[in-house]
Amino acid sequence: MSNNQHTAENSNKFREKYFDFSGRITGTTYFLRAFLANILSFVAGYLCGYGWVVSFTTLIFGAVMLFLSLWYSLATVYKRANAIDPKNVQLWTGAVAIISGILLFDDGDGFFRAMNVLGIVIHIYFIFQSAKSEVKA
Fold this sequence. Notes:
The protein is mainly alpha-helical and 137 residues long. It has helices at 3-18, 27-53, 56-84, 89-103, 110-128. The protein is flat.
């Protein structure tokens, strides 16, 4: 096997493991990946804000990083929902995406507090719920 084939194979495995909407993960893996996605999103948001003021290149880098962290986050939700409830995986992923999108416009009123609590409950459920099917760690 040539070095290029080996690199391409590793690249595909990395993409499948972290960015594809397929497979299943455990609750612990879900927690760790969600934590990493939040850190990446925070750093990306900071770079976007900093780039807006200082450097267009930094702004573009931050925007690309933000897009990748959001994709990673949705793929993580999909994989965990697939382990818990394979029949309704699109429903769970869509619900988390919609709730997260609504919370971007949070102004502190009761509706947004209710959405925040609902999001927290879903994430706790994803962390602690037993998988309905076997999960490869």
